[in-house]
Write a structure and sequence with these properties.
Number of domains of chain B: 1
CATH superfamily of the largest domain in chain A: Periplasmic binding protein-like II
Helix content of chain A: 40-55%
Helix content of chain B: over 70%
Largest sheet of chain A: 5 strands, mixed
Largest interface: B-C, 111 and 112 residues
Distance between the termini of chain A: 75 Å
Number of helices of chain A: 18
Order of helices and strands of chain B: HHHHHHHHHHHHH
Largest sheet of chain B: none
Strand order of the largest sheet of chain A: 2-1-3-13-6
CATH topology of the largest domain in chain A: D-Maltodextrin-Binding Protein, domain 2
Number of strands of chain B: 0
Strand content of chain A: 5-15%
Chains: A alpha/beta, B mainly alpha, C mainly alpha
Number of strands of chain A: 14
CATH topology of chain B: MetI-like fold
CATH superfamily of chain B: MetI-like
Structural class of chain A: alpha/beta
Distance between the termini of chain B: 21 Å
Strand content of chain B: under 5%
CATH architecture of chain B: Orthogonal Bundle
Radius of gyration of chain B: 23 Å
CATH class of chain B: Mainly Alpha
Oligomer: heterotrimer
Shape of chain B: globular
Chain lengths: 424, 292, 293
């Protein structure tokens, strides 16, 4: 009689254990040795098309490797970053993951979660074809930690030519002040919110371009090294300009994401929106005609500056199938891979030897600017500052969206800078 | 009365007993008010259906509340293509997790109501508290623990986790349910000299069907609807439907037709359970819907 | 009657696996979480606070205070809304009328839906655009001639969180109704009849006889809705994502895990647990006493 409860215990235990036992071979675990799990948040639109193009080239170049799509959609990449953080912590990394060059990558380097891939640069001769500005954002202590796939430009104004014409605005403004005058003219002409923005991060995106316009590229770069003071008068002026611009934006911004604000511009509810050039892929996909249905120009006051971000792929520590990862990285850095990826994603290739003819109208222009402009890293997309700093700035900007308190915004920015550079 | 929620045996809301005659006018007013609220409750459902059958262009502004001008199932097709794999995973998660919690809960409920041991009350109270905790308070270590145990992200790990965190509520429901089993039956078993296992399997289990229905429905619904564990312990590739729906609806290219069709698809199983077995569902609510 | 271990031992053994699992997964992990919250595991964030400093610096933070304020607004509206509608519906349905079961089921059905799914439609309903651009509820208002009611919903800096609570009220009012209905139905008829024989008016009957009998049901509703509200996460993620304007502690915590600041995330989690415990533990003690009577 007394043995029977033990049976119950055993039964219960085996039920629970049975649950544990089912795990192997489940889901996206790259168990087999020739599987390459590529972890991204590119699940739709031009981003997905770009990834698909890249995969095609990869499967041609390395037919013995199997691509496994480790995409985590949702939350503008925040879902993915969260999942990635926990997987890296658990020692369960994907074969490779997407990381923005610059501050974002430094976090992974500091935590010793990714490895030096400098030998691939030697073997593939990438040092000759990748520009110095980009590679330096991937380098720490002479080790190179990722392979860049593309270049995006952040400081672009996209505008609706019909709305501008109706309000008698004919020329792109050359400074923030001139832009504010145009915005006023548009508003007087019945466009209630002529500058479309969306949720918090798109406001950070706008803010960074105003910082570049008012401070100039050099002082803007200094913000991230501690050389430019966040409590300086220039930053105060930039904040005031930003506050003035925000007066012309839509009140429902908190509920929108970037395609929505782009749509506001296209539909004519707004005249302008400031967004990265991934917008171009979206417009192309929607079969909109450049110059007719939308135009673009650098954010006023940032002409001659290329505010950039670059997606890159990494080799995680303890990556399953490291050889497969290296092959993936070779494809990413190859001329074919870059072309397959970028022509679809709307970005420009990192390789300087790429053929502009393969690219669209906007991209050809951007490729020229990339050669001639001053290059600065983007804040909102993890190139300029580490994730934690960006998070604090985003929170401060998000708070400003409702409080409209410029003094408080500057205080919060100064405090964040103190944490990350040791100086205001 | 506070105990009805925690303690009452799972059964439907008792029927009204007094039917006091009321004037036709008063009754009319009452129905009128009830109907107004009914419309308010159904408003979101109307929007879901109508929008899911529109082309994306019609989902905004002027035509927003109207029936589709052009009926299309493209939203439904897109949602189904995106969500269908995750729906099967949701079934593969919710069914075993609810069964395991229910079995463990039934054994616990039996012991805690009929075969008590010293300090059983303390154990019960500690179980109950486990039902109320914000799961955020264990999430970070849980992620680390599953990593240490070598449990990979995905359904299998979620089954284990939901089984464990379902134990408190299932224990509560069964404990309350078994409290209504006549003591005579148990005494007879004791006099008979039956051991605990025989008393459980031969006396209690045959009586347990209603308790199992209530717990299974309740657990199935809450596991199916869970988002928090899922987002920390799985991905869109290997997780349940809530994650996939959030990715579809919160994605960067918001397509309201597909999102709303997706919301309906993901809600369908729990709604079907609610419609078919609503009586027991309400029983579960009353017995121990003390659950977030 | 005293029993020896021979009697109760098998019972304990039968429940032991569950005790082990709950002990490990609930209490063990709570302890683990507290130890993370006291550590300096800030990931790559260049702050080196640890111990109780993690708590003091968090509590002083504007952002965290804002998230608590948002949570408070949300919770108050959620509670008042569900209790109000729940009680009203229960009273309307209480004395039995044709179709009662139908109305009850309809009022309850939102409960079967996940916040993620209902969030999809509420995100659309609560669109902040007004006037010609309006969709969602604002469009409905202007169509039926109530343009004055148009408002920015959750995008409003002051009352945004009250709007955010609307979907939650929609979803849980039916549940509170069910609690109240059960409470009403458990009041013995004799009590009502006695009051009526004493000549009490219907109003006095409710005021002095019925409502006092409902207070335990109201207490359950308060605690159950309250603890759900305090840990709200899904709903806000589904509607506004991580916008600062609608941030509550659970969403803040999510943000901190995204950037790898485990210590801060764990600190927020512990504070959430404490807030919930303050609400729930007295309730559990109260109900267990009640039960023993």
């Amino acid at each position: 009689m007394r043995r029977i409860p033990l049976v119950a215990v055993a039964a219960a235990a085996s039920i629970v254990l049975a649950g544990c036992g089912e795990d192997d071979g489940d889901g996206s675990q790259a168990g087999a040795s020739n599987e390459v799990e590529v972890f991204t948040w590119w699940s739709e639109g031009g981003e997905k098309a770009g990834l698909d193009g890249l995969v095609q080239v990869f499967e041609q170049q390395y037919p013995d490797q199997t691509f496994v799509n480790g995409v985590v959609a949702g939350g503008a990449g925040s879902n993915a970053k969260n999942v990635l953080a926990s997987r890296l912590e658990q020692g369960d990394p994907p074969s490779t993951f997407q990381g923005h060059a610059g501050g974002e990558l430094r976090d992974y380097i500091a935590q010793e979660q990714i490895q030096d891939v400098g030998h691939l640069y030697e073997e593939e001769g990438w040092n000759d074809v990748f520009p110095e500005e980009v590679v330096s954002l991937l380098t720490e202590d002479d080790a190179i930690y990722s392979v860049p796939a593309n270049i995006h430009r952040a400081n672009v104004v996209w505008a609706n030519p019909h709305v501008l014409k109706n309000a008698g605005v004919s020329q792109p403004p050359d400074s923030i002040d001139a832009w504010l005058e145009d915005l006023q003219a548009l508003q007087d002409n019945g466009v209630k919110a002529p500058l479309a923005v969306a949720t918090d991060w798109t406001q950070v995106h706008l803010f960074e371009t105003v910082l570049i316009a008012d401070l100039g590229p050099e002082a803007y770069n200094g913000l991230w090294t501690g050389e430019t003071a966040w409590d300086s008068a220039e930053v105060t002026r930039a904040i005031e300009d930003y506050a003035a611009l925000m007066e012309f934006t839509n009140g429902d911004r908190a509920g929108l994401d970037w395609p929505d604000s782009n749509q506001y511009m296209i539909s004519g509810r707004a005249a302008y929106t400031v967004m990265g050039d991934w917008s171009y892929a979206g417009f192309e996909e929607a079969k909109l005609k450049p110059q007719k249905e939308y135009i673009w120009f650098p954010v006023p006051g940032t002409d001659g500056v290329f505010d950039f971000l670059a997606d890159s792929f990494t080799l995680p520590v303890d990556a399953p199938n490291a050889e497969g990862t290296e092959n993936w990285l070779r494809t990413v850095g190859s001329a074919e891979g870059q072309e397959a990826f970028n022509t679809k994603k709307g970005s420009i290739p990192v390789r300087t030897d790429a053929d502009p003819q393969a690219y669209g109208e906007y991209q050809q222009e951007a490729m020229q600017d990339w050669q001639s402009d001053t290059i600065v890293p983007s804040l909102a997309h993890g190139a300029a500052a580490p994730l934690g700093w960006l998070e604090e700035i985003t929170s401060a900007i998000g708070e400003f969206s409702s409080s409209k308190d410029t003094g408080k915004l500057q205080e919060a920015l100064v405090a964040a800078a103190e944490t990350y550079t040791g100086s205001g | 009365m506070a105990t009805t929620t925690l303690v009452a045996a799972p059964e439907q809301v008792p029927p009204a007993r007094t039917r006091r005659p009321s004037s036709p006018v008063a009754r009319g007013v009452r129905y009128g008010v009830l109907l107004v609220f009914l419309v308010m409750i159904l408003l979101p459902a109307y929007v879901l259906f109508v929008t899911s059958l529109k082309p994306p262009a019609e989902t905004s502004s002027a035509q927003a509340w109207l029936l589709p001008q052009e009926w299309t199932t493209s939203g439904w097709r897109q949602a189904w293509d995106t969500l269908s794999p995750s729906l099967w995973r949701s079934f593969a998660l919710a069914i075993p997790a609810s069964i395991m919690s229910a079995v463990l809960g039934s054994m616990n409920g039996f012991v805690l109501s009929r075969w008590r041991f010293p300090r059983a009350n303390v154990v019960f109270a500690l179980f109950l508290f486990g039902m109320f905790i914000p799961y955020q308070a264990i999430m970070l270590p849980l992620v680390e623990l599953t990593g240490t145990l070598g449990l990979p992200n995905g359904i299998a790990t979620l089954i284990v986790v939901h089984t464990v965190f379902g134990i408190p509520i299932c224990t509560l429901i069964f404990r309350n349910y078994y409290a209504s089993v006549p003591e005579d039956l148990m005494e007879a078993a004791r006099v008979d000299g039956a051991g605990i296992w025989r008393a459980y399997t031969q006396i209690i289990l045959p009586l347990s069907a209603p308790g199992f229905v209530v717990t299974l429905i309740w657990q199935f619904t809450s596991v199916w609807n869970d988002f928090l564990f899922a987002i920390f312990l799985s991905t869109t590739q290997n997780g349940p439907a809530t994650i996939a729906l959030q990715a579809l609806a919160g994605g960067q290219l918001s397509n309201y037709s597909a999102s709303m069709a997706g919301a309906l698809i993901v809600s369908a199983p729990t709604l079907v359970v609610y419609i078919v077995l609503g009586r027991y569902f309400i029983g579960g609510l009353m017995a121990g819907s003390v659950k977030g | 009657m005293k029993h020896g271990i021979r009697h109760w031992g098998p019972g304990l053994l039968m429940i032991l696996p569950s005790i082990g699992l709950v002990g490990l997964f609930v209490y063990g992990l709570i302890g683990w979480n507290i130890s993370i919250s006291l550590s300096d595991e800030h990931g790559s964030i260049p702050v080196d606070t640890s111990g109780i400093d993690n708590y003091t610096s968090l509590l002083q933070e504007q952002r965290f205070q804002d998230s608590l304020e948002n949570l408070a607004t949300f919770t108050i509206v959620f509670l008042v809304g569900t209790l109000f509608f729940g009680l009203m519906w229960a009273l309307l349905l209480e004395r039995g009328l044709r179709g009662e079961g139908f109305f009850r089921s309809m009022y309850l059905f939102p409960m079967a839906v996940s916040f993620i799914a209902s969030g999809v439609v509420w995100r659309w309903l609560l669109n902040a655009s007004e006037g010609d651009d309006a969709t969602g509820l604002n469009r409905l208002f202007s169509t039926i001639g109530l343009s004055g009611l148009e408002n920015p919903w959750y995008s409003d800096p002051g009352w945004g969180m009250a709007a955010m609570a609307m979907p939650a009220v929609w979803q849980l009012s039916g549940y509170v109704m069910a609690l109240f209905l059960a409470g009403l139905r458990s009041i013995p008829d004799e009590l009502r009849e006695a009051a009526r024989i004493d000549g009490a008016s219907e109003f006095r009957l409710y005021r002095h006889v019925i409502f006092p009998q409902l207070s335990p049901a109201a207490l359950s509703a308060l605690v159950i809705i309250g603890h759900m509200s305090l840990k709200v996460f899904d709903l806000i993620m589904a509607i506004s994502g991580e916008a600062r304007i609608t941030e509550v502690p659970a969403v803040y915590l999510w943000g901190m895990t995204t950037i790898g600041d485990d210590a801060k995330a764990a600190t927020i989690a512990t504070i959430l647990l404490l807030v919930v415990a303050v609400v729930v533990i007295p309730y559990l003690i109260f109900t267990s006493r009640w039960e023993r009577r």
